[in-house]
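Morning, I've got a small favour to ask if you have a moment. It would help a lot if you went through both lines with me. Thanks so much in advance, here it is.

***
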Amino acid sequence: MTHKHGNTVGCWPTEQQTLLLKATLLHGKEAMDSWTAWRTLVDLDNIDHESQMLLPLLYKNLLSSGVEDPDMSRYQGVQKKTWVKNQVILHEIWELLQKFHAAGINTMLLKGSAMITLYYKDCGLRPMEDVDILIPVEKAKEAIQILFRQGWRIQKNSGPAFNEKYPALTGENHFENSRGLLLDVHWHLLDECLYAGGDDDFWMASVHARPDGDLTVNVLNPADQLFHLMVHAMRWNLQPLVRWVADAMMILNNEQDIDWERIISQAKSRRLILPVKNGLTYLHDFLGAPIPDHVLNEIRKTPVSPFEYQEFHFKSNSGKLFEGLVGTWFRYRRVENRKSFTGRLWGFLKFLNYYMEVKHSWQLPVYIISYGIRKIRYSFKYWLNNR
C-alpha cells in the first residue's frame, strides 16, 4: 500500500494534513513538533477546507498542553463558530427526528452527529456541513413525504430520487430547507451494499444514544462505526478527506473493547477488505493507533477477489471521463449477480434506465453522450481554476 502524500486530489491526507492530524490527535513532543512543522507550511488565510475542519480539535489539544501563541485566537474563533452552527443544525434536526418517531419511523444517526453525540461530546469540536441519518428502506417513502410536508426539498444534482420499485438505484437523497440546512437521508448505509437486507445486521447490532433529554436514537456500535468510516473514506476526492482520521482516532481512544473480529467479518462478507486494510494500516503507521497486530496481520493476509481489486482501484483513482457510468456498473454488479454476459448486459441497461430516469433504452446513448460532455466541461473548468 502506498500513500501519495503531496497530492491535491485522492483519498489520502496530504503531507501537510498528516502533520496537522498528528498535531491535533497526538500528545507531547510529537504533537508539538508536528504543529511547528505544519505552521511553517501553511497560510491560515488560505488553508484548505478539510484542514480548516480540524482547527477546533487542534485548539483543544494545544490548549490542554498550555500553548500560548497568537494563532490560538484564530483556532478558538473557528471553534466558537462551529459550536453555534452545530447547535442551530442539531436543534432543528432533533425536532424533525421527533416527527419521524411519532410516525413510527426508526432513525439512526450517522457520521458527524453520531460522533458528536458519542465521542466528541462538544458541539464545537467537530464541524458538520450536513446531518446524515439512516432509516429502514421500507419507511423511506413515508419519511420523504414527511420531509416534503415540513418544507424540505431534494437538492439539485442529488442523483436519482428514491424509487419504490427499485430502491437499490441509490442509497440516499440529499435534502435542504429554506434556511439552507442540509440533510442526507439514507435507506442503505453503504453504496456497496444496496441489496435487500444489506443493513439488517447494522440495525440489529446498533446501540441507543440520547442526543438530548427527550430523544432516543440508534447509532452504530463502535466496530460498525469504525468500519463505516473507513469504507466511506476510501474513495477519490478533489480534496483528500481527513475528518475520517480524526473520527476514527476518537473512537479508538475512547473505546476499550472494539470488536475487531466483527470488523474483519464485515469486510469479508461485504467484499470490502481493501478499504479496511488500507484504513487500518494508515491509522497504525502514521498515528500509532492502538490496533492489535493480529488484526492487521489477518486483514492483510485475507484474499481479495478480482472484482474487489477492480472496484477499489476505480474508486480510489477516479476522476475519469465516464466515472459515473463505470461506478454505476460496479453498483449494479453488487446488486445483481447474474452469471451470463447477456443477462448482465440486459440487466445493466434496465438498471441504467431507472438510474438515468429515461423511459426507453434507445435514449441511453443520448444521455451518456450528454453526461460525457458535461464531465469534459467540468474537468476543463477545474483545470483552468487550478493550473
Residues 320-386 form one domain. Residues 4-9 have pLDDT under 50 and may be disordered. The CA atoms of residues 22 and 30 lie 7 Å apart. The beta strands are 108-110, 131-134, 153-154, 172-176, 182-186, 207-212, 215-219.
